[in-house]
């Protein structure tokens, strides 16, 4: 009697496992041995949580099993299982053991005469596979049963270690964990530009019902589409980047890693993951179902995936991904260079575009001159399509080239900094009439610390063997202005850009012996303990000035 009460109080899933294990004591015929193996697998499985998403880690070639019980609480019980592979394709299946009422009754009453198991209770009819799948798509199985049953899920990865998520619910009348997709889950490309692609998609029913808890997130990359957000995150991590949890799409700035850049504008939040294999952008745009992706590269194929994300549960559903190729960049406008004429060009650092100049030679020997005014510039020169020079320039740079009459030279210039750069360019066949003055070995200005006083400083600079004019200018600055003054200085601008009060003096000098071609100047009438910016301008025969590197000197506070 006590044993009967014991069986009565056992939960149904433990009762069924106990009954199934009890049946293993049957005679060991071949069919019964197979039956015992199946029951052993059930017994050594983990219980799958009902109503929540479970993350399962799989080792290569080692199956993992979970079980759950569908209890008979009404005429027809139902359940739903959703499996999301997060990396490589996996194999998974659902097996069911349908125990008859008479079998359970015998076990509950303690009947140990299991040698008379009926034919209907043998392995082929007791345990059966009702579903199996192999692949990396998100797959959902919906099942139902008119009686209690024990189910087992088996998962296997044959490629490598991986992980998956599994969602089981036996309460199919409650709300959905995953946001719903529309009947047509495709993404439409409605516009393509050189650096933009415009996408649109049909609204998720979940967005229309729970607008405050649902949002759309877009993933952009140059490799391929992803069938789930879980798979995308795994791929990003494996490429060497660290990705925040899925809710980073909702998004929390403190979850960002050093390899990531977050951009917030117009209620849209983007995370750009930097890696050697390219960049992956995540853009969350709320509940808008049309979006123009900006800042793409011309003539590049991109893959676009839209995920509808439940911000409360962190669950997501993927639309059918699409791809598009941006338009080719139009041929850059080419400016004709005229012999002997100087032009100044401002290069956009943000767009990193080449500025093209063309020159058709009228002499066999020509010379290109570049004077860097601001920033950093890359110069690339081709002659009849073949590269003859390519380098980053600084200060004043000459390229003397030989060729044939009517050779075509193409000069391409590009800023190598994100800020704008500026450069002066001249091409000439008249070597005997240089546009720029002869330069000294160095354009640095030296100051003498021991000669500093409270109201004067002494500076020195190098000259040349050619008599030239040198003008000195000073400017009083504050401590916090030093970096900006030095960085923003236009090295091509002449004294005409300076205030008259900043002029100190002008002088002529030269020396045939270059080792003695040095001049010094003591600037008086300064304030004590004050910072001054000093500039020297060199003027050649053509009158075009060359600016020495600015020098900052502070007068003594006490003397």
Automatic annotation (TrEMBL):
Gene Ontology CC: one annotated term: extracellular region
Domain of life assignment: Eukaryota
Keywords recorded for this protein, A-Z: Glycoprotein, Neurogenesis, Repeat, Secreted, Signal
Molecular function terms from GO: heparin binding
Domain Fibronectin type-III residues, every copy: 179-316, 437-545
Xref: SMART domains: FN3
Keyword Ribosomal protein tagged: no
Location in the cell: Secreted
Signal sequence coordinates: 1-23
Alphabetical list of InterPro entries matching this protein: FN3_dom (IPR003961), FN3_sf (IPR036116), Ig-like_fold (IPR013783), NDNF (IPR019326), NDNF_C (IPR045805), NDNF_Fn(III)_1 (IPR055271), NDNF_N (IPR056225)
GO BP term (any one): nervous system development
Keyword Chaperone appears in the UniProt entry: no
Biological role stated in the UniProt entry: Secretory protein that plays a role in various cellular processes. Acts as a chemorepellent acting on gonadotropin-releasing hormone (GnRH) expressing neurons regulating their migration to the hypothalamus. Also promotes neuron migration, growth and survival as well as neurite outgrowth and is involved in the development of the olfactory system. May also act through the regulation of growth factors activity and downstream signaling. Also regulates extracellular matrix assembly and cell adhesiveness.
PANTHER family: NEURON-DERIVED NEUROTROPHIC FACTOR, PROTEIN NDNF
Record's protein name: Protein NDNF
Lineage: Eukaryota, Metazoa, Chordata, Craniata, Vertebrata
